[in-house]
Design a protein that fits this description.
mainly beta; about 120 residues; globular
């Protein structure tokens, strides 16, 4: 069963490593493509990936991700040592793993598109 990812913001500016949340990323995981029912992700370990136009993974990390649990929200805060150096549009993929189980969150209707400036 796929889960669905909807990002709250569509842009991240390179080099924003301040303590403010101005350009941090966040998204919500849903059980359905209509984004009606959030998924409890508290028992999963998240991995974030950015995918380019041909489907290749160009960035992958487990660092800087905060799983808020039952509300299905994932918070993403990049550090200077763990930052994507990209420019342009990319798809965002969230992989959730727990005790050998793996679920991939996909986007629909551009809900997982991200622009890096």
């Amino acid at each position: 069963m796929p889960l669905y990812l909807k990002l709250d913001s569509k842009m991240w500016v390179q080099g924003d490593f301040t303590t403010s949340n101005t350009y941090d990323m966040s998204g919500t995981v849903y059980d359905d493509a209509r984004f009606a029912t959030t998924r409890d992700i508290s028992s999963f370990t998240p991995t974030l990936q950015f995918i380019d136009y041909d489907g290749s993974v160009v960035y992958s990390t487990t660092t800087g991700l905060t799983n808020t649990g039952s509300a299905g929200i994932i918070l993403i805060k990049f550090s200077q040592d763990n930052s994507p150096y990209l420019n342009g549009f990319y798809k965002t993929r969230l992989i959730l793993e727990s005790s050998g189980n793996r679920i991939t969150c996909i986007g629909v209707n551009g809900s997982d598109d991200m622009f890096f400036d």
